[in-house]
């Protein structure tokens, strides 16, 4: 299980996210994380606060890449 612990010292709050995008971050922190992610991957990222329906995607640890399947 992927666990991300983010501590925003200015607000003295921490958020623990386990394999989901349903996190509540300050907008400044989201901007910083997105810029760093864009720099590392050269790809735009979705907003962290975006609600993602994972009800039909199986195990959260399994990458879901469009319509690609491993059953060929």
Which sequence of strands runs across the widest sheet? Answer: 1-2
Structural class: alpha+beta
Question: Radius of gyration, Cα only, in angstroms?
Answer: 14 Å
Mean pLDDT figure: 58
By DSSP (H or I, 4+ residues per run), the number of helices equals 1
Note poorly predicted spans: none
Region (Disordered): 36-72
Biased composition (Polar residues): 57-72
Biased composition (Basic and acidic residues): 36-56
List key phrases describing it.
72 residues, alpha+beta, 1 helix, 2 strands
Tell me what the structure shows.
- By secondary structure, the chain is α+β, with helices and mostly antiparallel strands.
- It has a domain at 3-41.
- 21% of the residues lie in helices and 17% in strands.
- It is built from one helix and two strands, in the order ββα.
- The chain has one helix at residues 27-41; strands spanning 3-8, 13-18.
- A two-stranded antiparallel ribbon has the order 1-2.
- The radius of gyration is 14 Å and the shape is globular.
- The model has no long low-confidence stretch (mean pLDDT 58).
Describe what is shown at a glance.
The chain has one helix spanning 27-41; strands at residues 3-8, 13-18. The chain is of the alpha+beta class and 72 residues long. Residues 57-72 have a biased composition (Polar residues).
């Amino acid at each position: 299980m992927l666990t991300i612990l983010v501590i925003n010292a200015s607000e003295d709050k921490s958020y623990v996210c386990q394999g989901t995008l349903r996190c509540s971050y300050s907008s400044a922190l989201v901007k910083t994380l997105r810029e760093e992610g864009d720099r590392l991957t050269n790809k735009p990222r979705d907003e962290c606060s975006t609600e993602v329906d994972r009800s039909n995607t199986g195990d959260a640890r399994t990458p879901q890449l469009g319509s690609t399947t491993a059953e060929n």
